[in-house]
Amino acid sequence: MLTFLAAVQGAALVLLLVRLLPGRHRRPPVAPRLEADAAAGDVSIIVAALDEAHRIGPCLAGLETQGRLVREILVVDSGSTDGTGAVVLAAGARDSRIRLLRDDPLPEGWVGKVWALEHGLAQASGDWVLGIDADTVPAPGLAGGAVTAAVAHGYDAVSFSPRFRTSTAAERWLQPALLVTLVYRFGAAGTDVDPQRVMANGQCFLARREALRAAGGYASARASFCDDVTLVRHLARAGWRVGFLDGSRLYDVQSYTSAREAWREWGRSLDLKDASSMARQWGDVLFLAVVQGTPLPVLLVAGARWAFGASVTLGHLAPVLITSALLLTVRVLLQLALAGSYARRGLAFWLSPSADPLAALRILLSTIRRPTRWRSREYGPSASSSHSRTVTK
Fold this sequence. Notes:
Structural class: alpha/beta
Order of helices and strands: HEHEHEHEEHEEHEHHEEHHHHHHEEH
CATH superfamily of the largest domain: Spore Coat Polysaccharide Biosynthesis Protein SpsA, Chain A
Strand order of the largest sheet: 3-2-1-4-8-6-9
Oligomer: single chain
Number of strands: 12
Distance between the termini: 41 Å
Strand content: 5-15%
Radius of gyration: 22 Å
Number of domains: 2
CATH architecture of the largest domain: Alpha-Beta Complex
Number of helices: 15
Helix content: 40-55%
């Protein structure tokens, strides 16, 4: 059994290194630019919002600092009851580019955020459409940096990874392990991968307006809980060039207030089932179980058995100890590489590899169960339309 596990771990390690080694030459974080080449065209920003009064203020303040490249900032409110509209109107009084829109009633089969983006796209007039989540804090020059990078690399659609702000030590311990499930499956931001395995991040998603409209707008992702990845892979299949870059200098994001919320909310979409075949989903589950779920438990259990004199020799344990140690070493090195993507680290962040078995378990649970609730709102055929109007993260 131990020999078989060592062989499986060894094969998984080879696959993991194939995916991660291109990261040695990944592109550096995209730099903010207040302006871009005039020939690149201008930008319409769309912010989908529902009950975001407590956090949309910093987002709008950041968007106000964008340069003349930004033609308009369209905030699509899906029936907020907490004063979101008042916050947006106050921002619009300071910056005439900010406009408050109300989307139409949610059609059956659409996720609320995607429908809001579709409504915004219908109103947008810029050459580029930049989707921004309400829980982001954009840096001055985000739009200019994003467009400049897209043009430089020839992308028709590109999204950007953020710099994460975390609230608690427990979140700083768990959240990087959840993030690593994405890196292990799809590689690091700033590397070129198979377009059908490209990652995306709807928190900051830039696309040529003509590409979006030619590909049917956001309709391809209308029922997806990972709408960003579903959309970018649909664009890739339609022949548009897509990418995923490091945007840690462009914006910060704080989506969750605790490790429990990150486990519950982010964990529901990390499986990316809506953008992957069933075979690929379960292949990824098994892969993560081996590369993240087993190394630390194997080292702890095997080491304890040998130390306490169990009837097992060190030579018998050596193959699985070596492969587990190598996998854990890769994970620790990756933690070093991820450090720049976190505004605050501390001891809990550096201990995050010990949360890897939990992260692998979360992907399994998410793959087994399709979400029916998101941030206390109902989804699915049985949900009422009033509860289905939601903005997913």
